[in-house]
Amino acid sequence: MIISVTLNPSIDKYYEVDELLPHQVMRAKVVSNTAGGKGMNVSRVAALAGEAVTAMGFLGGHCGNYFESLVDVSNLNCAFTKVRGETRSCINIHDLATNLSTEVLEPGEPVTAEDLARFLTDFEKYLPLADVVTISGSLPKGVKPVFYSQLINLAKKQGKKTILDSSGLALAAGIGAQPTMIKPNLHEIRQLFLEDISTTEDLVQIGQKLNAKGVEYVVISLGEDGALMVCPEGVFSGKPPKLKIVNAVGCGDSMVAGFACSFQRNYTVEDSLRFAVAISAANALTARTGSFQEEDLKNLLKEVRIQRL
């Protein structure tokens, strides 16, 4: 089983408009609501890929109840810790004229020390049942960056593989706990090291520095160019074919889901990267955030190029 942690989930609202016109009234052509947040996207994609997933984090209020009603994948179990504050919403407006998206992200309500203690009790209850733990996204107000480190340490003590996908102070603190894998994007790597990182050689050096700090797999997502993996087995590039992107939101989360499934199935390094890049690209071909079509995934698995650098 895979445990996915989403401490700051959201109801993701997707609007499709002919053209994004600031300061004007626009009418959406397509509207969809999804149980979202980075970790929830991981949960749904991993479950759609056939793995049993338990989704954990904080939910609250009427929006929290609505969030759970939107979970429609059979092998995805919601085990969220309930809090008083309303669960947030995030908006993605897709502009058909430019094929670009604009996002508005609510910060989320604060959680208390009591909420955190109850979550840890819930987390430790499910942890023995899992093989892989993914920890994704931002932290709600009231949660210190070291909290992710605490979760990683709890999972490692029970021999669980851990994947951390966060940014800023939460990512920096989490790296200190030596998760099995991290998946920053290029912006997050630059933010972490405060360096002008632009070449593949720069990224490889950064990845090797992180390997030396105890992170076994450093995967840097590169958008349409796929991902770069730096690990004890070597340095690998995974590139998808050129695609006509429908919705790029959730592609990084889908990549995390792909690696979680790969760890669960004991795939080789090359097969793990191929599967993760393919399922990430498949997510880009569907309007629903954190989803994919099985036929797209099958086709993309044949077309993703893996290269040892």
From TrEMBL:
Keywords: ATP-binding, Kinase, Nucleotide-binding, Transferase. The keyword S-adenosyl-L-methionine does not apply. Pfam families: PfkB. GO terms for cellular component: cytosol. Residues 13-291 form the Carbohydrate kinase PfkB domain. InterPro entries: 1-PFruKinase (IPR022463), PfkB_dom (IPR011611), Ribokinase-like (IPR029056), Tagatose/fructose_Pkinase (IPR017583). GO terms for molecular function: 1-phosphofructokinase activity; ATP binding. One of its GO terms (biological process) is carbohydrate catabolic process. Belongs to the carbohydrate kinase PfkB family. This is 1-phosphofructokinase. It comes from Flexilinea flocculi.
